[in-house]
Each structure stands twice: as structure tokens, then as C-alpha cells.
Write a structure and sequence with these properties.
It is built from 3 helices and no strands. It is an all-alpha fold. The chain is rod-shaped and about 105 Å long. The two termini are 37 Å apart.
């Protein structure tokens, strides 16, 4: 009787150790994915802001150049460029809103690994119960 309870507790300890190791691995994977996503978003933000600054300065200088070149029609030029910029801004805002509604692939690897772990545990449980594992 003592051997059975010792064997049971040893088996339980091994199971617990396996679960903890699996959980640790999955948390490390989650952390790595989160770090990669953070770096990607930071780079995206830095490059986007830099591009926006350069484009804004360039557009202001272009409008000034065209207005100086055609000084007599400056009111029409400023009106046309204003409409172009407002239209472009609205189009980019609509695109940004559409992109913000799209799902991110964040944690996709972790979720698939956890799903595989769950299926392996279910198969092991079915095998221990003498059932045929599900495919």
C-alpha cells in the first residue's frame, strides 16, 4: 500500500513538473512575441512620424513654390492645394480606420502551441482511460 501511494505521489510530482515546464515554455514564447511586437510597433511609429514630418515640410514648400511661381493666381492655387490636402487626409483617415479594425496576429504562435498542448493532454487522458484518442 505504501508503494502504491509513493508511486502515485511520484507520478503526480512528475506530472506537475511537466505542466510547470510546459507553462514556463509557453510564457517565454508569449514574452518573446510581445517583445517582437513592441519593437515592431516602436519602429513603425518612429518611421511614420519621421515620414510625416518630411512630407509635411515638403508639401508646404511645394505650395509656396507654386504660389510664388504663379503669384497672380495665388488664391486659386491655395484653394486647390487645400482641397487636395483635405481629400488626401480624409482618404488616409479612412484607410487608417479600416486597418485599425483588422485583427492582429499577436500571440498566434502561442495560441497554436497551447492548442497542440491541449490536444496532446486530451489524447494522453483518453489513452489512460483506455479510449481511442480523437483525431
Amino acid at each position: 500500500m505504501a508503494d502504491q501511494s509513493a508511486g502515485f505521489f511520484a507520478s503526480l510530482k512528475r506530472l506537475l513538473a511537466t505542466l510547470v515546464a510546459t507553462g514556463k515554455t509557453r510564457l517565454e514564447l508569449l514574452g518573446a512575441e510581445l517583445e517582437e511586437e513592441k519593437i515592431r510597433l516602436t519602429q513603425l511609429l518612429v518611421f511614420s512620424v519621421a515620414a510625416l514630418v518630411f512630407l509635411c515640410i515638403g508639401m508646404v514648400l511645394l505650395v509656396a513654390l507654386v504660389a510664388a511661381a504663379f503669384w497672380e493666381s495665388r488664391i486659386v492655387i491655395f484653394a486647390v492645394f487645400s482641397l487636395i490636402f483635405i481629400g488626401g487626409g480624409l482618404a488616409l483617415t479612412a484607410t487608417a480606420l479600416r486597418l485599425s479594425r483588422r485583427r492582429s496576429g499577436l500571440f498566434a504562435s502561442s495560441i497554436s502551441e497551447l492548442q497542440a498542448d491541449l490536444e496532446a493532454l486530451r489524447a494522453a487522458q483518453a489513452e489512460a482511460n483506455g479510449e481511442q484518442p480523437r483525431s
